[in-house]
Structures are given as structure tokens and as C-alpha cells.
Amino acid sequence: MVSYQDFRIRLQLLSPLGTRMTSDTLFGHLCWQVAYCQGPDGGAEFLRPFRQGQHPFVLSDAFPAGLLPKPPVPRTPSALARPEDYPQLKQWQKWPFLTVDDFLRLREDPSANVQPLPDPWQVAKIPHAAIDRRIDTTGTEAFAGQFFLTEVCYLPGKQIVDIYCRDFAHSLPALLQWLEQIGKTGFGRDKSLGFGQFRILSEEPWPHFSPLPGANAVISLSTLVPAKDDPTHGFWQLRVKHGFLGEQASANPFKRPMLQLEPGAIFACPDNIPPFLGRIVPGVAPGMPEAVQCGLALTVPCRQHELL
Q1: How far apart are CA 306 and CA 78, in angstroms?
Q2: What is the pLDDT of residues 188-224, one digit of tens each?
């Protein structure tokens, strides 16, 4: 059996995010940070065990503090017994999060009565003005030179997110060092404008995702690209990602579209509970053949839902 230890890393966002903190984008930033600190050879050495299937660690997406994704399992037919239950059913299907306590109860008892919560992330459009170089102003016409830049911002007063790490090779100290450096320079789109800055508030062992007696399914906490031998019987929500290369690979930054599974996907695993799912995807960018996309997902053992 593969040995590992789980940790929870808590971050405080110091500025809005231009890019959501998904596990694959976090991994990409780590690759670039290692390359900056240790050179191209260091970046290649960082990726080598991942390419070989000997993953030193697996990260989750970043979730609002105290929340975890709700598995997209349909409600049982009994939930439709009364017409007045229909609004509650719609709410259950639409709201994507659970409190950590409800998530842990649901993983032990698939029939537990838990209350989903709405998505606290908010998308804001910020107005900007472009200067007409011919007249050195925005112009006199209504809305001349104006455009909007979309950014992801968090609800006021709640600027804290949680990332979960499954450490297979005592990688946490180096990982925290790289994250600290990323937090100072910024994460994601428009970090040169001050977006995506954060600081590490705490890191602590997280024993609540440990093996569960009677577990026969897993819940993914990451952005997942399934591997060939991964389980297929379950429930999930899909996302098509049109990604971009970052940093010094901006000459031809476009990545090929990629089909991903959002966090919360649940799969039946009656024979074996894997500590992770997914794979490292090669050949994702024509402009940088050596680039890869991280499709690895941290999994939480759970007891199988009756609909699986």
C-alpha cells in the first residue's frame, strides 16, 4: 500500500484573482517557479517523477475556507415525493458546496441529510479606459475607449481559501517555499497588474481523508483528466478548458482544448481505493512541445451512494 500524509494549506488572498485556483493551474505555476529558481534543468527534474507516474504530491483545487465540493449525485426518487419539495431539489442540484463537516458526514453515510451552499465566488466586470493615441484622450463620444476586464473576486470579508495536499515523498517544505514565492509575484492572469497575490496563513496535517472502513468509492477534490485504467462508473460534471501557456512561453500561448472533470466527481471503486486518479497529459501546446497539463486528482474514500 502506498504511504502518504495529507495536509491542509490555508491561504489569504491579498488581491482579486484573474484566474481560478484550479489544481492544474497551481501545478503549472509550480513548474514555472521551480524553473525560475533552479533553471530549465531543475524544472525538467521536477517534472520527471510526474512523467514516470511516481508523483511526489497531488494537490486539490483551492476551495473557500471551510467548504468542499458537493458530489453531483442525483437525489433519490423519494426526494420528489411531494411537489413542495421541488424548490429544495433544484437548490440541491444547483448549489456546489458543502461545509467540511457535512462533507465528512456524507462520505461516511451517503444518506446523510446535508445542506448544500451557494458558490461564494463572484465574477466582477471592471471598467477600464483606453487612450486614443491620436488625440491623447478617450474621446468625446459616449463610452469612447471604454472596455471591461473580467476578474474573479471573493466575497468581501472572506478572502481565505484551502488547498489540500497529498504528500507521497515529504515534499511539503519545498512546496510551501514555492507557494510563498508565487504568492509574492502573483497567480494567474494579469498578475503584473497586482492580481493573484496571497500569503500562507497555516499548514497542518489533515487526518480527515484517511482510509474509511467499508469504503467502496472515491470523491475527487481536483480538476481531473482520467487515466486509461481509472474507474468510469460514477457521477461528474464536465468542463472544457481552453488554457494558455504562461510566463516566457507567450509567443504562442494557446493550448489545445481539454475535457476535464470538475471537483466533486464520485466514482465507484469496489475492488481498490486509489489515493489519486488522473494523469499527466503531454502534448498540450503546439508552441511548447515539452509542456504538460496536470490532470491528477486527490481522492477522498467514501461509502458508495445507492445510485452508483
Answers
A1: 13
A2: 988 888 899 999 999 999 999 999 999 999 999 999 9
Please provide residue 181's backbone torsions phi and psi, each rounded to the nearest 5 degrees: -70, -40
Q: Rounded to whole angstroms, how far apart are CA atoms 141 and 143?
A: 6
Domain borders along the chain are: 5-120+155-302, 124-151
Q: Is 235 helix (H, G, I), strand (E, B) or coil?
A: strand
Q: Cα–Cα–Cα angle for 259, 264, 267, nearest 5°?
A: 85
Q: How far apart are CA 60 and CA 44, in angstroms?
A: 22
Adjacent-strand bridge partners of 219: 266, 300
One DSSP character per residue, 206-230 reads -GGGS--TT--EEEE-S-B---TTS
Task: Compute CA distances 64 → 119, 155, 177, 241, whole Å.
Answer: 9, 10, 22, 21
pTM: 0.91
In this structure, the chain runs to a length of: 308
